Automatic annotation (TrEMBL):
GO terms for cellular component: plasma membrane. The modification 2',4',5'-topaquinone is found at Y461. This is Amine oxidase. Residues 161-258 form the Copper amine oxidase N3-terminal domain. Residues 289-308 are annotated as: Disordered. It comes from Aquila chrysaetos chrysaetos. Residues 72-143 form the Copper amine oxidase N2-terminal domain.
């Protein structure tokens, strides 16, 4: 490198550092006043939103101590517990009943007691089971009550429990023990003794209730890169139902299209030259498929987003306020982000908006791939929302918030900076008009949005969860999917199930389904579902009655019952769906919020499938049901390991009750079928919607200019690559006010 090049790079580096310092320092300045700006939004919450706040680490620790001293059984730390032990699986907030919360928030009633929900695995009992306790009041617990039967209408069998980290460790030890029975085969096929191979779980774990037998897929492992693209062709089936780890066994082996009873039998076939072996050398670091290492020197720095007068939102505890918006935010360790008491201009429009489940379903001609139907909630969507990288995962100027959880341990854990909040300039006018007729003027409204974001890494996929609040009063939910695809070993007719993405790697076809719960309270709790669509009517033109016109008119309908409001996949939906209050606006129309959904999901499972009921929420684009306290979620973490007898089946919620002027909720689905391309790029779960709400004339950020005025320059926003393979943005749901 010559001196001139080095000098140029040094100047660029110094300029970048200077820009970043300016961006970060500007946040500390007090915002200057401006007559044209709206006044700073006042936070009048007075701590009421703490009724929705996630548990603190101290509260979690208090619950653990209480359970240890009051259950009368020996509890082993879940990080060390065997299946035959008793342990605390998780502790999370027990959200109070909605009626109690609203009496407190709106009616001046007493604050509901703060309680925790503790999930325990009782393996050291005559009848092993899963039990859920409500523990309270916090911060000093004095009681606990078993809510399992009340919540699930029966006991929860022990075999439905999610697999713990300790169980995976014991399975890995068994697999390593079995791999040692085929040393010559492993040395030839993979240049390995088995200890450096990565092992990936699949799910579900069998074919009927009570099964706990899992196919594990083996990959070459390389530090600093995703092993998911490096299958070696070997998969093993482990039976781990017995509560005694010593009784677990490897039941079957798959290699390159053939099945064997054990690793020993596989080795014998190899030694006898009865096995076709595909030699896959250990990958080299500089040439590994799917490496995240930069392939070339970085170019000049891109534009940065900054806040010229500091952030225009404010955060107090678990509540954020912005431009008329007020939102209480939190994180469920299983199902992920959850928002409560969403208000716009002081009016509650959504009581709860929460992620419920993410399904990833695969196809392959290898056993692990063909069987896989991941229900990510059972792995921990919120628990695996890790720290966000400033300037890439979120803007440099975003506010970063820690999240705490207690799962598979008696000690709370903290994911630092795992949720970010920022204002986003869409670089697109929400509304604008230039007039060259009669008078010359320009009017416009900038499209600024508050974003609440978390990113969950579920094995190979990284899901970016965005909750967006627009200045127009619209709420948008979207998910981006990035990370790595999952893959199978390419053999036989593998390309019937995907595309080749490497020398021996099949990028398997798969689909994603994402499910959200929306509890809308539009101008009160008693809402109805109304539809509007277009139709034509042939009429005589009224001024001469000599010709006909295909006159377009608006066809309105109120959907009275749940069956009418459950819209199956691949069936037409009305163009306008809105939750309407019985109270009219000043023009006589019901005050309402429109729901827009556009999704490209494939069929979640055939109706004849024995496990379809466990993901029956996937049948619907939208299903509106009457809200019931005993139906808090559309699924359960126990559905993954027993989908044949689901603990919660969403289809049971739809029993044709009336939903007119009732407290209703709208579970929403979205997703996409992915046929992986010929490069190993992650395929996104996406659905596209377009905003339709038009803001009123007094929204914050309005610009009204004459042609002789002076336009201040707009500031660029930051766009940074999500990964080597890129990422895809995908709005999945938009709710727009109709005033």
């Amino acid at each position: 490198m010559n001196v001139k090049t080095a000098l140029i790079l040094l100047i660029l580096a110094l300029a970048t550092i200077f820009a970043l310092v300016c961006v970060l320092l500007i946040r500390g300045r007090a915002p200057s006043t401006c007559q044209d700006q709206p006044p700073e939004q006042e936070d009048t919450d007075d701590g009421q939103s703490l009724v929705f706040a996630d548990l603190t680490p101290e509260e979690m620790a208090q619950v653990v101590r209480y359970l240890q001293g009051n259950l009368g059984v020996q509890l082993v730390d879940a990080s060390r517990a065997k299946p035959s032990d008793n342990c605390i699986a998780s502790v999370d907030l027990q959200v109070p009943a909605k009626a109690e919360v609203l009496r407190f928030l709106d009616g001046g009633g007493a604050r509901p007691p703060r309680e925790a929900l503790a999930v325990l695995y009782f393996g050291n009992q005559p009848d092993p089971n899963i039990t859920e306790y409500v523990v309270g009041p916090l911060p000093t617990p004095a009681y606990h009550r078993d809510v399992t039967v009340q919540k699930y209408r029966g006991k929860v069998p022990y075999h439905r429990r999610p697999v713990t980290g300790k169980e995976y460790m014991d399975i890995n030890a068994l697999i390593q023990q079995e791999l040692r029975k085929a040393p010559r085969f492993l040395a030839t096929c993979c240049e390995s003794d088995g200890t450096d191979l990565a092992i990936l779980t699949t799910a579900p774990r069998g074919f009927k209730s009570g099964d706990r037998a899992t196919w594990f897929v083996l990959f070459h492992s390389m530090a600093g890169t995703g092993y998911y693209l490096l299958p070696v062709g070997l998969e093993v089936l482990v039976e781990h139902r017995d509560l005694r780890v010593s009784h677990w066994q490897l039941r079957q082996v798959f290699y390159n299209g053939r099945y064997f009873a054990s690793m020993g039998v596989l080795e014998e076939a190899f030694v006898a030259s009865l096995l076709e072996v595909v030699r896959i050398p250990k990958p080299q670091t500089e040439a590994v498929l799917g490496s995240m290492r930069p392939q070339r020197p970085p170019g000049s720095p891109g534009p940065l987003q900054y806040e010229p007068q500091g952030p225009r939102y404010s955060i107090r505890g678990n509540r954020v306020t912005f431009q008329g918006w007020s939102i209480a935010f939190g994180m469920n360790p299983n199902s992920g982000p959850r928002l409560f008491d969403i208000r716009y201009r002081g009016e509650r429009i959504v009581y709860e908006l929460s992620l419920q489940e993410a399904l990833a379903l695969y196809g392959s001609n290898c056993p692990g791939g063909m069987l896989t139907r991941y229900l990510d909630g059972s792995f921990g969507i919120g628990r695996f929302a890790y720290e966000l990288v400033r300037g890439l995962d979120c803007p440099y100027t975003a506010t970063y918030v820690d999240r705490h959880y207690l799962a598979e341990s008696e000690t709370p854990k903290t994911n630092q900076n795992s949720l970010c909040i920022f204002e986003h300039d869409a670089a697109l006018p929400l509304r604008r008009h230039f007039s060259d007729s009669q008078s010359l003027y320009y009017g416009g409204l900038r499209k600024n949005t508050l974003v609440i974001r978390a990113i969950s890494t579920l094995i190979n996929y990284d899901y970016i969860w965005d909750f967006m609040f627009h200045g127009s009063g619209a709420v948008e939910v979207r998910v981006h999917a990035t990370g790595y695809i999952s893959s199978s070993f390419l053999h036989g007719q593998g390309t019937d199930y995907g595309n080749r993405v490497g020398p021996h790697t099949l990028g398997t076809m798969h689909l994603h389904h994402i499910h959200y719960k929306v509890d809308l309270d539009v101008d009160g709790q008693l809402n109805s579902l109304e539809t509007q669509d277009m139709a034509y009517k042939i009429v005589k033109e009224p001024w001469s009655m000599q010709n006909t016109i295909e006159r377009l008119y608006l066809r309105r309908e109120r959907l009275e019952r749940e069956d009418k409001a459950a819209f199956l996949l691949n069936t037409p939906m009305p163009r306008y769906l809105s939750f309407a209050s019985p109270n009219p606006n000043k023009w006589g129309h019901p005050r309402s919020y429109r729901i827009q959904i556009t999704s490209f999901a494939g069929e979640h499972l055939p109706a004849s499938s024995s496990m379809e009921r466990s993901i029956s929420w996937g049948r619907y684009q939208l299903a509106v049901t009457r809200r019931k306290e005993e139906e808090p979620t559309s699924t359960s973490i126990y559905n993954q390991n027993d989908p044949w007898t689901p603990t919660v089946a969403f289809a049971d919620f739809i029993d044709n009750e009336t939903i007119t002027n009732e407290v209703s909720r709208a579970p929403l689905g979205g997703g996409e079928l992915n046929a992986v391309g010929t490069t190993p790029a992650p395929a996104p779960a996406r659905g596209f919607t377009r905003p339709v709400a038009k803001p009123g004339g007094c929204q914050a950020g309005k610009v009204l200019l004459s042609l002789t005025g002076c336009l201040a320059p707009l500031l660029p926003r930051t766009w940074l690559p999500g990964s080597l393979w890129g990422s895809c943005t995908s709005p999945m749901l938009k709710m727009s006010p109709i005033r």
